[in-house]
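User: Show me sequence and structure for the first protein, then do the same for the second.

Assistant: Starting with the first protein.
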Amino acid sequence: MSRDLRKYAHQTNVRLIIGAIIILFLVGDGLIYLIYGTTAALTGFLCLGGGLIPPLIVVLILGLMDWVVHRANRE
C-alpha cells in the first residue's frame, strides 16, 4: 500500500485552515454576542467576513496561476 504524503499534507493543511476559521467565527463572534449583544455580533461577523476577503483573493490568484502553469507544462 503506497502513501501519497503530499496529498495527506494538503488535506491536513486544508482541515487546519477550515478548523481555524470555524473556531474564529464561533468563539470570537460568540464572545462578542455574549458580552455585547446581537447587533455587535452581527457587526463582528461582517468584519470577520470582510477580513477573509484579501486572503481568499490571494488564494484564488495563486490557484489560477498554478492551474495555468500546469496546463502550459502539459504541452
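Switching to the second protein now.
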Amino acid sequence: MTGNPASALAARDYKSATKPVWCPGCGDYTVLSSITKALAELALAPENVAVVSGIGCSSRIPAYLDCYGFHGVHGRATVLATGLKIARPELTVLVASGDGDGFSIGGNHFLHACRRNVDLTYLVMDNRVYGMTKGQPSPTTEPDWDSALTPGGTGVRPFNPLVIALASGANFIARGFSGDPNGTAKIIAEAIATPGFSFVEILSPCVTFRPDQRDWKDKVHPAPVDPTEEIGRAARRLMTDDGFNLGVLYVGKRAPYEAKREAVPATLAEIERQFVV
C-alpha cells in the first residue's frame, strides 16, 4: 500500500467519467461512494490502486473508478488479483464481487485466497440473489425465499461467508451496509490498511428482485462486541451472528504471503540465452 498524506485528494478524484448503470435504488451506488471515500481517507494515489472484478452487477465497479481496473471472468477475480499483487506488490489491490460471483462459481477460489493471505482487500456486495441474471437464488439466499424461479424456496441452508473466511484463514473480517456509506468507508479503509487478506461483506439490497430488502435498514445494527484477534471467540461470535451485525469482527496477526522474487533478466540478450538449447 502506498499513499501520499500531503496530497489533497477527495473522493471525486477516484471516480471515472463513466456513469453507473445500476437500477435506481441499488445499494451498489453507495458502496462505490464508500470505496472512493476510503481511498481518499488513505490518500492513495489513483495510479497506485488497482481494482479487479469478476461478473455481476457489483463487478461493474472498476469501470466507475479512475484507477487501474480489470474486469475478469466469472468467479476468478481473487485469482487475478492474487497474481497482480504478487507481481506488483507496491500496488494497493482491491477485489469487487457479489455473492454469486464470489461464493458460487468463485467459492473454491475464495477459500484459497483466505488461506494464502496475500495482501488483498476483498469486497463482496451481498444481496442474496443473482441480480444481473434476473433473480435466481444465490448461495446466501434464505432457504424459504419464494420466487417465480424457485417456488417455495430452495430449502438449502445458506452459505455463511464470514464463518468460511475465518475457518479458511482470512486476516480481517468485517461486515458493512450500503445504507451506511460513511461507516462502510471506514471499514474499507481499515481493511486496506490491515496487512494480509481482508474480507468485507457488504449488505447491498437488490431493490429490483428483492424489494423486501428495503427493510434491511431497520434490521442492521452495530456489532455488540469489539473486534477480537482470538479465533475461538471470533468463531463463537460468527456462528451465533444474526446476519446483520455491522463492523469489524476479527483482526488477526498472520503475516501476509510474500512470493520469492528472483532477479529478472535486464536485456533481450539475457532473455534469449534462457532459451538456448
